[in-house]
Amino acid sequence: MREFLREHSWAVAVSVLLHGLLVGGVILAAFIPAFRPPPNLQPLPIDAVVVDSQIVHAAQQRAAEAAASVQAAEQAKAAAADAKAAEEAKAADDAKAAEDAKAAEDAKAAQDTKAAEEAKAAAAAEDAAKSAAAAQKANLAQQAAAAERAEEAKAAAAKAADAKKAAEAKQAAEKQAAEAKQIADAQRAADERARQDREAELRKQLSDEERRNAVESGPLRDSYIAKLRNRIQNAWIKPPSASVGLDCLVEVTQVPGGEVTSARVTQCNGDAAARQSIENAVYRASPLPDPPDPALFERNFVFRFKPDE
Amino acid sequence: MNKRFSSLLAIGFLLFCSRTWAQLVVEITKGQAEAIPIAIVPFESPGAAAAPFDVAQLVGSDLARSGRFNTMDRKDMVEQPHTGAAISFDDWRRLNNDYIVVGQVQTVDPDHFNISFELYNVLTRQRMLGYQFTANKPGLRLASHQVADMVFQKILGIRGAFATRIAYISVLGAVPHRQYRLIVSDADGENPHVVMQSNEPLMSPAWSPDGQNLAYVSFEDRLPSVYVQNLPTGERRRVSAHAGVNQAPAWSPDGKKLALTLSTRDGNLDVYVMDLATQALTRITDDPGIDTEPQWSKDGQTIYFTSDRAGGPQIYRVGIHSGDKPQRLTFQGSYNARPRVSPDESQLAFVTQEDGGYRIATMDLHGHGEVQVLTKGHFDVSPSYAPNGAEIIYATRDRGRGVLALVSADGRVQERLVSSEGELQEPAWAPF
Questions:
Q1: For position A39, what pLDDT does the model report?
Q2: How many residue pairs bridge chain A and chain B with CB atoms within 8 Å of each other?
Q3: Which of A161, B233, B265, B425 is deepest in the core (most CB within 10 A)?
């Protein structure tokens, strides 16, 4: 957790700051009556929000999954690296045993390149080992006269044979390691693609949210509100009792396409005729106009009837 | 994990948090002053004897005449249900109706009818009214007007005034055979009854608050006198016959006093209040100019009147207690006369001169005295409020003939009343 915080300090800081602003705003709103929304303006259960929260939740879950799979890939990569390191160590030892540092270094360098090159390097190392063994043999032939050195030569030959064997073993191990690395690389590439896909998807969702947030406070939202207002005002036949001082809230539910499925006057200081006229206005206005941006569609919203004349 | 990726998550979460604060609230500050579309389906009339008239049509024409309803043309009706169960709401909605009235008129016996009706909201499919009552043949029109009243009140929240009466003066023939009649009819002009007839002028009918009596000016004694006539009994008595002018009677809200205009010996007209029981007079105005056409405020403590004390006729008001100083109300134009107070005393209706013609205007009594000219005729005079304040009846001229007309108190709708013969003048709308 601490590691996470350290690693993502920027995001956490922004998040904490904005949350702080939000909480501060709420507290401020609670203390300034003018900013307190009327009781009925309390946020109502909005289907759209529920859907959105699910999307975000799903996105979060998917992100977690993506993170997990990235982690798994990284673990696999680390395991492969460990195996490779072990092999490298062994190969280095073997090369030392063959007393050809150059071949060993070549081999080591080959380990970082592609599998084919590594195989080639391994073959080169084998050749080097072979020539080393031949040189040793020549040496041994020159000292053949010396009987006491015969055993040494024999031992050297045995050592050379060991070196050859070791080189062969090393080649096999390196081949195995290369294969493992190839698989790990492929896996890592696939995981990376998946992660990028998921990130792109989440980014898109977030950008939808950002766009929605942008349009909700922007001119498109204003234009939608103006369209709704016009439609309702044209549909509202004011009864004689509806004049300055009337203040009524009507909760409206619409379905995509704008058809009003319910209109219910909640808080209203008017008479029965005023309430009736308000509900009728909403039904008469059905279907309600489409939002200029689909992101603005609200299934539930509130009309406030407050005539200024 | 990618740093940017987690940043996106953090921002997404913040967006999610802020989303719940974006409740869409649209404020509606204006509405239409349109007529409400309503379908009055012809009432089913089973049984041998049909009703003497089309009840649904009467209900529809009442509602339409008020200007607040737009009744659907019958030929546009694709079906004619008679009960709520038979209404296809979607169809009626498609034909742009907000409301529908269905009903039946059943003949109980040749002289009695059973009316049943229902009012539905087409948009919400709610049943708003359902009534059934019996009426005798002469009462069937009144019963039909009552149906209209109930529908009117249920939808608009104000009492309908269709089942009320009006009084007016009808002048027939030419001099020297001219005949004056005081007539009381239904509010739609139908069913007229002559309550007083004279070869000398009759003027200024005024209803008592209980609707049982009419006060009016008669010249039957060659000089103007004020009479009070009881309608149910026809009994009449002369209550004011002072030397000179006796005119423009107006009942106090309690029905115990009359305000009227009397003249002094030198011909100066002033407003007085007469106690009907004792005929004792109290002088309300005292000014060398003409003070006339008094009207009581709702509480009976103030009298509105016309005076030319400032030159041309203008409208003033004064408390009935001595020492009260008259207050001028109208300042717009050179001629404002014959004030009538709306039932809730929020408005004053009067005659104003505009573009050389006499027109009906109203003035806001609560706000800033805003004046609205309601009519466009050349000789629109004698306004009188319906008891619900929604309409004003007045006298006008149509092709040289005196007729009665209606205008809604907001000026939106004007209607001619079907008129019987003669020159019709000085309508007065009865109380409920």
A1: 40
A2: 177
A3: B425
